Amino acid sequence: MSSNSLNKPTHGGPREGAGRPQGKKNANAKGRTAISKSVSMPAEAWRKLDIERGTQSRGKFIAFKL
Questions:
Q1: Element (H or E) spanning 5, and its range?
Q2: Between these two residues, 6 and 47, which has the higher pLDDT value?
Q3: Where are the domains of the chain?
Q4: What predicted TM-score, i.e. pTM, was given to this entire model?
Q5: Per-residue buried b or exposed e for 26-64, using 16+ beta carbons within 10 Å of the residue's own CB
């Protein structure tokens, strides 16, 4: 066994540079730009929305309507 294998993990753990860029550490970083919200409606309203939205996602359809 080499001394290098004692100091560094061979697998697992975080990787340098992995994940979403952080604001102050990277000039190109914006972080997460979406804001998550939930919408509660009766099942019949969801069925109508799904028919009208076609192939668009629910979120894009609602945002377009606003």
A1: helix 3-7
A2: 47
A3: 41-66
A4: 0.48
A5: eeeeeeeeeeeeeeeeeeeeeeeeeeebeeeeeeeeeee
